[in-house]
Amino acid sequence: MGFLITTLIFLVVGIIASLCVRICCNRGPSTNLLHLTLVITATICCWMMWAIVYIAQVNPLIVPILSETE
Amino acid sequence: MGESRGGGCCPPMDLMRSETMQLVQLIVPMESAHLTVSYLGDLGLVQFKDLNSEKSPFQRTYAAQIKRCGEMARKIRFFKDQMSKAEVLPKELLEKESDIDLDDVEVKLGELEAELVEINANNDKLQRSYNELMEYKLVLQKAGEFFSSAHRSATAQQREIESEDSQQAGDDLLESPLLQEEKSVDSSKQVKLGFLTGLVPREKSMVFERILFRATRGNIFIRQTVIEEPVIDPSSGEKAEKNVFIVFYSGERAKSKILKICEAFGANRYPFSEDLGKQAQMITEVSGRLSELKTTIDAGLGHRNVLLQTIGDKFELWNLKVRKEKAIYHTLNMLSLDVTKKCLVAEGWSPVFASNEIQDALQRAAVDSNSQVGSIFQVLRTKESPPTYFRTNKFTSAIQEIVDAYGVAKYQEANPGVFTIVTFPFLFAVMFGDWGHGICILLATMYLILREKKLASQKLGDIMEMAFGGRYVILMMSLFSIYTGLIYNEFFSIPYPLFAPSAYDCRDASCSEATTIGLIKVRDTYPFGLDPVWHGTRSELPFLNSLKMKMSILLGVSQMNLGIIMSYFNARFFKSSVNIWFQFIPQMIFLNSLFGYLSVLIIIKWCTGSQADLYHVMIYMFLSPTDELGENQLFPHQKTVQLVLLFLALVSVPCMLLPKPFILKKQHEARHQGQSYAPLDETDESLHVETTGGSHGHEEFEFSEIFVHQLIHTIEFVLGAVSNTASYLRLWALSLAHSELSSVFYEKVLLLAWGYNNVFILIIGILVFIFATVGVLLVMETLSAFLHALRLHWVEFQNKFYEGDGYKFAPFTFIFTANEDE
Fold this sequence. Notes:
The complex is a heterodimer. By secondary structure, chain A is mainly alpha-helical. Chain A has helices spanning 2-24, 29-58. Chain A is elongated, with a radius of gyration of 18 Å. The radius of gyration of chain B is 44 Å and the shape is flat. By secondary structure, chain B is α+β, with helices and mostly antiparallel strands. Helices cover 58% and strands 8% of the residues of chain B. Chain B: It is a multi-pass membrane protein.
């Protein structure tokens, strides 16, 4: 469940970011498309990295073994 | 292929493709030519073609003007030299200075140069006399001391002799004690003893003495005194250490020898008289002349400085004007002269959107130069490939330069810079991931950005110049680094449970097995990033390595897929369906049926927690695809799926290789169908398959060349699929190196210093930690990760779609770089 919720959060943040960029720097359709592409790419990159690290820890095959001096 | 009108498939995006360029021809009447070029230079949107390329520089129309400008530039350089020597700074150029005439400038420069040269020559002469007089004064003082000390010892001796009741008495004993012996022996042989005084450089003094001694067979007496402070040598103008010498000799021959030796050693001689009274008189005279000279020299220098100030006021203005004029004449030389029509013809590339502005500039120039005829602007059709022009701003120009450093985009092909703006800092951050270090870099780059205006006008060193130019890229890098640092949970290598408590805990209350079997997962997965418990555990590296390697593969496969999709957009834009069907699709199928499948397996393994060995699965998929999978089964019907994927991959290879050359050949023949009937003198061999395009002249079609090209492309892609995917493992390697270095600096320096409970050691430890962090992690690791992220983009991403064999649009403009000194 945590995965889906956080994915939705990423989606919402991405949408808000693109709206913000559209509002603050509205300079013609081709430039807007460029800004949108950049924001979407950044959102996807960040989401992918988070998702990979999250999924890798859901069903771990290795558990932490503390070192002696703990 | 400058003619192929592509586009229309997707809405246009800034920066994705080069601006549309057109070849324009301008016909300009002679009288408005200069103004036209000047206004077009202000506009900065036309790249002139050199229409006189076969002429030498001397044959061109405006060679004399360029020589004039060269002369003026030389004078300006001379002024700059003089000003920097006198430490006069030129006045800063204001934005809108009034326009000045070149002839006026030339005349003024000539006058000022003559005046300055004269002042300099006079100053040099005066300075030389001054130095000589200074040396003379020293000689007078020191040699005077010789004589007075000799006099004193003589009087002392005289008193001794007198007290012994010597026979000889007389005044001349006091005067010349050195001649006492001689006179007493033989007064008939009146040998006249002469002397010379002067200065000799200290390092040559010993050799000087020895040579004098040898040359005169020991018949001289020489005395030297050291002068404490260095003296300015009149001939060289530099300070040198010198000694005052006085040489006593007898005879004319000895005198001439000594004179020659003095000349050879550069020892300056000065006249000195024995008479005490005269000595005092000379000293006062010399002092008087020295003070006179000093005032004259000071006045001269003052005059020169005033002159340099007046030059400095107008210097930047003249400098700019001369450079502008030179550039204009160079450009005018590129235009071809249409003698019959008394006008100049210019050809150049310019963006389509600038047509109106160019026509405006032409209009204004025609009006301003009072010419009867206006200029003509027309667009030419050509098959030449236009230059590539991207309109960038201060954010995107740095990234575009990075992309261009590998190769400038072919006209209108997709620009990898669009995605590089985000993926480059992102991949950097994957290798750098530490939010503490990210914050440090963010602070550094915010300083550069906030002081942008001030730093832009200063002249920075080479390294600072590069860092300043890339400040927005570094800003993105630092922001992404903070993000990945939060995900890797490293703050100077210390993890923090920022978002929730750690998911792991002891198996039972006593925690007895924590160091042998380990903890277990009791709560929900840590919600954002890596669980903080991992740092410092024994099983940290196996877990992290597995995680980071798999992440690298996933990110790599995504980026490569993006690259192939860009090639699809290119194919659609250039309307080349053969590229879509027989390049894009087989490439997608090949890459994804092998490495896309691997990525899917990774995700399934993580989601199900299976213990399958993915190495084993992938390798045996090729070696023995029909074997049972047994333990390594991740999902039902896996064997069938693998067989299908293997089959698709194998089929896609000949699909990439074979059809395209044949289809291209058919297309070429279809295009030139009608034209092959025209030349009647063609032999029957012209119907042979491997006809070259020699008779047509425009396009050649060598089938064997195309086939070999396609073969190389296919092999490169197939082998590259494996090697490029493995290459992405550097994301894992560098992030491991970074976190290990960071961890070592923290534990072995800071914690070690803390453990001693001594303030002094703690301070040293903190200093070492700071220097090591800044030097190794913030500078070296940044450069290293920058370089590797760059390589991943240039090679692994761009070789999927980028050709990069275009040339950059270099418009004629008056924005000069600081070092242009031509």
